[in-house]
Amino acid sequence: xxxxxxxxxxxxNMPRPARFAGCAIMGLLVVGxxxxxxxxxxxxxxxxIIPEISSLPVITFWQAVGLLVLARLLTGRxxxxxxxxxxxxxxxxxxxxxxxxxxxEWWETEGEAAFRAYNRRQKGDDxxxxx
Length: 131
Description:
Layout: H1 8-12, H2 16-53, H3 61-75, H4 100-122
Helix pairs in contact: 2-3
C-alpha cells in the first residue's frame, strides 16, 4: 500500500553491475558536492583573511581544494576508521558471545582469571611494572 521511500525493492531487483554503477555515480556526486562546498568555503575564508594579515596571495578554487587534500594527508585522516565509536559489540572477537549475559558468564568462568594473570605478568612482585 505504501511506497518504500528508500527504494529497496527497486535496488534489490537490479543486476549487481547496475547497482555498483549507481552507487559509484552517487558516491562521485556526494564527493564532488563536498569538494565544491568545502573548497568554496576554504577559498572564501582564505581570500578574506590571509592576504589581509600576511603577504600570502589570493588563491583559486582548485588551490583551496588542494589545501584541503594536503591537510587531510598531513593529519592522516583519510580513513573512516573501524573503531567502536563508544559502542561495545559483543561477539565480534569471540564466536558464540553475542549478548552481555554471555560475556558476564565468560568473565566469571575464565575472563577475570586471565586478566589477573596478565596483570601479574605485567607487574613485578612489588607491584611495579616489570622491565
